[in-house]
Amino acid sequence: DPGAADADAGAGGDALARLAALRRRLQAEVLDDIGRAVDYRRLADSDAYAELEATSRALATAPLATMLPDDAARIAFWINVYNVLTVHGVVALGVRTSVMEIPTFFGRVAYRVGGHVLTLDDIEMGVLRRNSPHPVSKRRLFAADDPRLALAPSRLDPRIHAALVCGARGCPPVSMYDPARLDDQLDMASEALCGGVELDATARQLRLPLVLRWYAADFGGEDGVVAWVTRHAGDRRDAIAQARADGWSVAYLRYDWSLNGTAPT
User: Fold this and answer.
1) Cβ 200 vs Cβ 47: under 8 Å
2) DSSP 3-state assignment of 39?
3) Residue 230, domain member (yes or no)
4) What average pLDDT does the segment 219-227 reach?
5) Residue, of 1 and 62, whose pLDDT is higher
6) How far is the C-alpha of 68 from the C-alpha of 78, rounded, in Å?
7) Helix/strand/coil percentages in the chain, nearest 5
8) Element (H, E) at 113
9) Is residue 22 part of a domain?
10) CA–CA dist 186, 26 (Å, integer)
């Protein structure tokens, strides 16, 4: 039905346009210059929060099949939805110092998207990680017949771990990802994450972001993690490769779970 197809295209365009407009609104009103700190207190009483609510309503009926025709569109969309949902969840639940105040935060905060209910964990583990086992529970979140499996991209891109914002200072900045520029954007995010790598010559130790240990399986194990870090380490690539060749051990940095901004209340 051409009319139905046109309606789907319109609804999909509306949802995507609202996401983009929301990102601009957040940047203008409640994010610092690089998107790393969120003024949740200001957001709670701002027009941007109304925009957040309107965006969530538009997502509820978004025609995902027509909106997300390829992997780039899917990966960009789900990263964007995850990051917006995290911000929304912090305000809605009144998080004060850390999302870890709410033990079920990632399994509780959810949107209805395209008729499917998805929590933050569902989006990350079930969709973006293609239903790979959860790093803590080791369980797959979706059953084999779960219709949400169809929302996943055809491949797991480990660079998502440099882009997903979990409401903590240890997370990357809040960014909006564009399918047309996705590779470049994910490479930049990966390089920023790898900028946090520490080389301790005295201890002969490479210290890597902890998120890379949590999701080491997505990189092919620890050797794959180190190879990935080396590729994205910019002007420190040779130094990291040499350290690994010289037998330096790998350790992981403490993760900062404190809230990435001012508390909403």
Assistant:
1) no
2) strand
3) no
4) 96
5) 62
6) 10
7) 55, 10, 35
8) strand 110-113
9) yes
10) 21
Contact present, 113 and 59 (Cβ < 8 Å): yes
Tell me the C-alpha distance between 38 and 31, whole Å.
5
The secondary structure of residue 34, as a DSSP letter, is T
Domain limits at 68?
2-168
Is 14 contained in some domain?
yes
The DSSP bridge partners found for residue 112 are 117
CA–CA distance, 16 with 30 (Å, rounded to integer): 21
Q: What's the gap between Cα 195 and its chain centre?
A: 18
Contact 53, 102 (CB under 8 A): no
Tally of domains in the chain: 1
Q: Is 115 left (phi over 0), alpha (psi -120 to 50) or beta?
A: left
Cα 14 to Cα 8: distance, rounded to the nearest angstrom: 10
Res 9: pLDDT: 45
Q: Which residue type, as a one-letter code, is found at position 259?
A: L
Question: At 44, which amino acid appears?
Answer: A
Cβ 19 vs Cβ 76: under 8 Å: no
In the block, tokens 């409640």 appear at: 30
Enclosing H/E stretch for 251: strand 249-252
Q: Inter-axis angle of helices 2-29 and 47-60, to 10 degrees?
A: 160
Residue 2 has pLDDT above 90, yes or no: no
For the entire predicted model, the pTM comes to: 0.93
Which pair of tokens denotes residue 239?
A: 């130094």
Q: What is the DSSP-derived secondary structure letter of residue 156? A: -
**Angstrom distance (rounded) from CA 128 to CA 116:** 15
Alpha helices for the chain (secondary structure H): 2-29, 40-44, 47-60, 64-67, 71-92, 105-108, 120-121, 182-194, 211-214, 222-231, 237-245
Does any domain span residue 265?
Answer: no
